[in-house]
Amino acid sequence: MSSSAAPAYRRMSVEQRRSQLLAAAVDLFGHRRPEDVSVDDVAAAAGVSRPLVYRYFPGGKQQLYEAAVLDAAQELIARFAVPSQGPPTGRLAEALGRYLEYVDEHAHAYSALLRGGGVAETSRTEAIVDDVRRRAAEQVLHHLGVVTPGPRLAMMVRCWITCVEAVSLTWLDAGKQPPLDELRDWLVDHFTGLLLVTATTDAEAAEAALRALAQETPRSPAGRLVARLDPLRDAAARLLDGGVAP
């Protein structure tokens, strides 16, 4: 018997087979540019025939790519949903931790989601990715007690979400360093800083910041950040008094 014989066909349910093919596609899209992945590649990675791929995904590579993007997007959206209990920065840390755990566990899918580009990207995939950002922003604003944000607060939250995406991709490229918990805490501090700076020039952000700070505790992320900033208080006081040398 030849050692190069094809592996035996394994019968699966429709959902199992579709999941298997989608997982193979996600892995390939995570390692290569979408335009460099073919249906034959997906079939080979899944150990099935090309016609079988088309049976489950008649649209071929484009349908596979869109399904991969949608699968990752739905999971990421779910990760941002946390209970409305406890200090706001604690809730944000929980949601962000869940988000980064997905990035850690599904690096290829995350890369495929955000690094699509090329001929495989369509208005549909762009809309799917933007929906992740929009839904994440809604969750963040929900925990700030804001339903319909003004332009400056909305831009601040979207700016932070864009930063989270860029940092997550850089973190993967850097071998997942620093550790996930440190990365999460730094990004929560970054959000707190952005909110407080925005609050100095925007009344709506100031109201949201004051409402959030009233719920924080000395042990919450915002409370720990304030404690770490304490050594800078004297320098800030000298600056206000005009006593800092030029």
Give an overview of the whole structure.
Helix 1 packs across helix 2 (39-46), helix 4 packs across helix 6 (107-114) and helix 8 runs antiparallel to helix 9 (180-199). The chain has a domain at 69-233: Tetracycline Repressor, domain 2 (Orthogonal Bundle), CATH 1.10.357. It has helices spanning 14-31, 39-46, 50-56, 60-79, 88-105, 107-114, 123-143, 151-173, 180-199, 203-213, 221-229, 233-240. Mean pLDDT is 88; it is low at 1-8. With 246 residues, the protein is an all-alpha fold. Helix content is 70%, strand content 0%. The chain is elongated and about 75 Å long.
Provide the succession of SSEs: HHHHHHHHHHHH
Oligomer: single chain
Content-based structural category: mainly alpha
Count helical runs.
Answer: 12
Could you tell me the strand content as a percent range? Answer: under 5%
User: Cα-atom Rg, whole angstroms?
Assistant: 23 Å
Topology diagram in text:
Blueprint: H1 14-31, H2 39-46, H3 50-56, H4 60-79, H5 88-105, H6 107-114, H7 123-143, H8 151-173, H9 180-199, H10 203-213, H11 221-229, H12 233-240
Helix pairs in contact: 1-2, 1-4, 1-6, 2-3, 4-6, 4-7, 5-6, 5-9, 7-8, 8-9, 9-10
Briefly say what this structure is:
The protein is mostly helical and 246 residues long.
Primary descriptors:
246 residues, mainly alpha, Tetracycline Repressor, domain 2, 12 helices, 0% strand, elongated, disordered N terminus
